[in-house]
Design brief:
By secondary structure, the chain is α+β, with helices and mostly antiparallel strands. It is built from 14 helices and 31 strands.
């Protein structure tokens, strides 16, 4: 039987996961030095530009210890809280986790969240402190904190430098010694047919949907008939293989192994991430809960003829991003498009970026919104789109998150001052070593604006933010519509707390005046609540020189004639402008999201 170890690297964003994965690939000779590049497993353009992991990436490595060859399956996972669903899928496919902490920053919000998820998944957790080559003064303190969190001795924590490779081989040997082999896994049930868990997928024009799988029972070979349990879809295996880290064809995939199965299926709806792929009879493997979208944005193709291409692109995007949900939507102004559901603001921004970079589709999108519970005629209904929010409702509830901020004590005052702008509940405080952990409730709508950016700038990047949804809470909310040149702007409709409506509406129209380009006609920018205008700004028309009338300014009558002619022209343009939809670029939506 093969000696197999399946594990993930989990950490807060930017603590060195991808760099550690690079060193492991080098150490095991999986990737030759001449083709090695930083963040080797981060293949998306957005990942390289932002320096963060967005997609999990599986890789198979070989390593010999004490004369025994081990197969090591590593999954590099994202660190940002928006991509927690990626991490949950990876945890269901492995037996162990390296919990990595940056020695210069210590335990942060996502470290705690990832640790808790790994613990709940029953994984063996190995602690590692990274960046020791920087001689951080608080190294021993952070080692003690991590040991305390995991429940082990400080000497059990690996001290490494992922950049230089110091201590990395010792960590790899600890993985082999401490993480259980696949045969000990609680999900393996001999005699229960052949089963594998699908933890990711991608689309290939020739091979159809390629399912990334962890085999729990039996083995899979090319040509066999398989069943996708959740959708009851039947298919014939076109190819099986491993990630080295590029896909490499194999003769079969056996129990305990991680690899891929090319299904030949072309319809994205027939394969669900978290489903069980099986041969013959077999139960559904326990995966993880369905991701619940919390932010909703409507996408419309900039060129209406691109609608079918946008539909195909979203389908392919969903194969590599199972938390993305979308359904068709029509706007009187922007035509046909799709309403998308996302796990957070970064998730939505990345999806829009990928549509542009990977599929060449330019989109116009609405202002991001959250889901509200609205009572209409005695019944509670869920409203995702602000334009559907009824003015004559009998009560509104909005989603609430529990926010956790970890910070050095000196920034405490600055963080508490955020309550002037964001609707925080009462802060609870506890200590974590030399730092403070602040927890408070916050409406999700506030969290989806620029709280993370504000927190990072006021604490010089030392504070970290984590959150989880805890339910709904009643609030007094109003719908605010924005009109430019008498046109309601699709996507700028927002739901706001009643006591902030006038102030926020005034800020919105003032900022739009700054951001929108001038036209040949005057543009009135108005904010309206229940049909009543509550704020207004005007963008004057572009001025046109009337020409040279000589030293004394020429004949005044002639000048007045030209002025009147120009005035009439501007009025005609204004009327035409009121009949034409003013398009708001995506960059302006992004600016308006900032508080």
């Amino acid at each position: 039987m093969k000696e197999i170890r399946n594990f993930v690297i989990i950490a807060h964003i930017d603590h060195g996961k991808s760099t550690l994965a690079d060193r492991l690939l080098e150490l095991t000779g999986t990737v030759e030095q001449r083709v090695m590049k930083e963040q080797y497993l981060d293949q998306l353009e957005s990942e390289r530009e932002r320096g963060i992991t967005i997609k999990m990436a599986p890789v198979r490595m070989k390593y010999t210890m004490d004369g025994i060859e081990y197969l090591l399956n590593l999954i590099d996972t994202p660190g940002h809280s928006d991509f927690g669903y990626e991490v949950s899928r990876a945890l269901a496919a492995v037996e162990g986790a390296i919990l990595l902490v940056d020695a210069t920053q210590g335990i942060q919000a996502q470290t705690l969240a990832n640790f808790e998820n790994a613990r709940k998944a029953g994984l063996t957790i190995i602690g590692a402190v990274n960046k020791i080559d920087m001689n951080p003064p608080q190294l021993e303190e952070i080692v003690d904190e991590l040991a305390d969190l995991i429940g082990c001795e400080p000497e059990d924590i690996s001290r490494i430098s992922a950049r230089s490779g110091l201590g990395v081989e010792g960590l790899l040997q600890t993985v082999i010694k401490k993480i259980p082999a696949h045969s000990e896994n609680k999900l393996a049930h001999h005699g229960h047919g052949t089963r594998a868990l699908i933890f990711d997928s991608l689309y290939d024009d020739h091979k159809g949907i390629i399912a990334f799988v962890r085999v729990f029972d039996g083995s899979f070979t090319e040509g066999e008939q398989v069943i996708f349990t959740a959708t009851d879809t039947h298919a014939k295996i076109k190819e099986v293989g491993y990630f080295f880290p590029r896909m490499k064809v194999a003769t079969k995939l056996e129990q305990g192994e991680i690899g891929y199965i090319a299904t030949g299926i072309k319809n994205p709806d027939q394969l669900k991430i978290g489903d069980t792929i099986r041969i013959g009879e077999g139960d559904l493997l326990p995966g993880y809960k369905e991701p619940q979208p919390v932010v909703f944005v409507s996408f419309y193709p900039e060129d209406p003829t691109e609608y079918d291409n946008l539909k195909q692109a979203l389908g392919k995007l969903r194969l590599t991003d199972s938390a993305l949900s979308f359904e068709p939507e029509t706007s009187e102004v922007l035509g046909r498009g799709f309403k998308g559901g996302f796990l957070g603001r970064l998730h939505f921004e990345i999806a829009a970026e990928r549509l542009h970079k990977e599929f060449g589709i330019e989109t116009v999108h609405s202002f991001p919104s959250v889901e509200y519970r609205v009572k209409i005629k005695g019944e509670w209904q869920l409203i995702h789109n602000p334009k559907d929010f009824p003015d004559d409702n009998e009560g509104v509830e909005e989603p609430i998150a529990m926010v956790e901020i970890i910070t050095p004590p000196k920034y405490m005052g600055s963080i508490l001052s955020l309550a002037e702008t964001f609707r925080f509940g009462t802060f609870d405080t506890k200590t974590l070593g030399s730092r403070l952990v602040l927890t408070a409730t916050l409406p999700l709508a506030d969290l989806m604006s620029d709280l993370d950016d504000r927190l990072k700038s006021m604490t010089e990047g030392y504070a970290s933010l984590g959150y989880e949804l805890i339910g709904f809470e009643k609030n007094d909310l109003e719908k605010v519509e924005v009109l430019v040149a008498a046109n309601p702007i699709a996507g700028l409709t927002r739901i706001m707390p009643k006591d902030r409506v006038e102030r926020e509406a005034r800020i919105s129209v003032e900022r739009l005046k700054e951001l929108l380009p001038r036209q040949q006609f005057t543009q009135a920018i108005q904010a309206s609540v229940r049909g009543r205008i509550i704020a207004r700004e005007t963008i004057p028309a572009m001025k046109k020189k009337l020409g040279d009338f000589g030293k004394n300014g020429g004949d005044r009558t002639r000048k007045m004639k030209l002025w009147n002619k120009q005035k009439e022209g501007k009025e005609r343009l204004k009327e035409r402008g009121e009949k034409t939809q003013i398009k708001i670029p995506a960059s302006i939506f992004k600016e308006l999201m900032k508080k």
